Amino acid sequence: MKKTLVFVLFVAALGFISCEEDKDDILPDSRDYLIATPLTTALTAFKEEAVSVTEPVAMQESGKIYAYKNYVFVNDVNRGFHILENSDPSAPKNIGFIKLEGNYDISIKDDRLYADSYGDLVVLDISDIENIPPAKRIKNAIYQPYTCTVGFDVAWPHADFYDYGDMDFTKEAVIGWEVKTEHLSNSEFEDRFGYNPNAVYYEDSAAFNNLSSSDAAAPSAPETSTTGQGGSLARFRIVGDYLYAVEWSSINIFDISNLDSPKTLQEVYTNGAIETIYNQGDILFLGGQQGMYIYDISSPETPIYISEFIHGTACDPVVVDGDYAYVTLKGDTWCGNTESGLYIVNLKDLKNPVLQKFYPLNGPNGLGFKDDKLFICDGSDGLKVYDKSNVDDLKLLNHFKDIVTYDVIPLQNSLLMIGDKVLYQYKYFDDNIRLLSTFDLK
């Protein structure tokens, strides 16, 4: 509908110092690349009938969580999401399941729920949660080839680039990968992938040239409409009248001023492989396997690249509070081989983010904050709560062990956390938090 996707990961330009010439870094004319190509199967016709509302069902695989009004939506990976009525956080109630095959993310504004489904954007009217009308579907609005597995659990191999060639995402799904080393010249690379691998793409705009770090990173003003809240692992983000949905190489932008009829706008290709999205005011922070990427959305239809903070290859959600970004990196898995830990990045100069402090962790996933408390889901090592009032000396306040933790949403009065098919809720206190309830979705 909107594009034929050839997915590529942006690779930072490699340079070498010439011993014979009095010059700065000289870029190579060719190099070896690890290039992954997909193994595919047919995407069957059930996509057309993939949305329905049912009675509560048992969860198969825990996914992301989303909070809206008195409801918590819990993704069941690739199957849809469970609806919990949560007006009493000490006793949530499972009231239904929205079957939505190929779903991983949702975002909600004014009773309109936006979700992904095998690369389509689906719109649901949830103003009457007990009687949801048929969904509206915008075909191929979001390409997510890594999710189109039709029941296969496909791990991403380590590679420099993922080349989808002429794959038809409306008819095919990825079931595996083949990785080969190829030696390509810059011209061969550009002919194949459409850009020079040694280029660094900086956009020029008045907003970029006049950025004041403190002002640009100011917290968002309260919204007059009702917008839900996702966790740090979200790839959907609603800012004002716009929905931003990231995929592995671009930002898909939708004008949702008409809530029932989103308008698909021009996508913006990113400087790296993107996994998560977060905003603070008119600044987007994109977490990726190779770094954090910062974009200005003061002109919301055209995000402008500002800068990036590059780290080793790892899974990378990010949240931002004032002048600091908090980035958890999970290594030693298919995500990459970077040491797992928390990176605190100084954003006082948005054009030049720098590492402020690193704290080792075991295998972190999502994170969040409320005031001076920082909540980190450290995988099988449980939930960790820190005092972040001094970023150079975080203090551990609580450590909830013997639970598997995935992502958190800090609400006004309580903390939501999703683990292995269990929703946990905690109540805040001055110097710690206390478990309020658990809800087993098995």
Structural features, described:
- The protein has 3 helices and 34 strands.
- The protein is mostly beta strands.
- The protein has one domain (48-149, 202-440): Methylamine Dehydrogenase, Chain H.
- The protein is globular.
- The two termini are 38 Å apart.
- 43% of the residues are buried.
- Residues 1-25, 144-154 and 200-224 have low confidence and may be disordered.
Structure, briefly:
By secondary structure, this protein is mainly beta. It contains three helices and 34 strands. It has a single domain, classed as YVTN repeat-like/Quinoprotein amine dehydrogenase (Methylamine Dehydrogenase, Chain H).
Integer-rounded radius of gyration: 22 Å
Work out the count of structural domains: 1
The CATH topology assignment is Methylamine Dehydrogenase, Chain H
Helix proportion range: under 10%
How are the SSEs ordered, and which strands pair?
Layout (H helix, E strand, L loop, with lengths): L29 E13 L8 E4 L7 E7 L2 E6 L3 E6 L7 E8 L5 E4 L2 E6 L2 E6 L10 E3 L22 E2 L9 E14 H8 L12 H4 L3 H4 L12 E2 L5 E4 L2 E5 L3 E6 L7 E2 L3 E2 L4 E7 L2 E6 L2 E6 L7 E7 L7 E4 L2 E6 L11 E6 L7 E7 L6 E4 L2 E5 L5 E5 L7 E6 L4 E6 L3 E6 L2 E7 L4 E8 L2
Parallel strand pairs: 1-11
Antiparallel strand pairs: 1-12, 2-6, 3-4, 3-13, 4-5, 5-6, 7-8, 8-9, 9-10, 14-15, 15-16, 16-17, 16-18, 19-20, 20-21, 21-22, 23-24, 24-25, 25-26, 27-28, 28-29, 29-30, 31-32, 32-33, 33-34
Provide tags for this entry:
about 450 residues; Methylamine Dehydrogenase, Chain H; five-stranded antiparallel beta sheet; disordered N terminus; LVIVD; six-stranded antiparallel beta sheet; mainly beta; globular
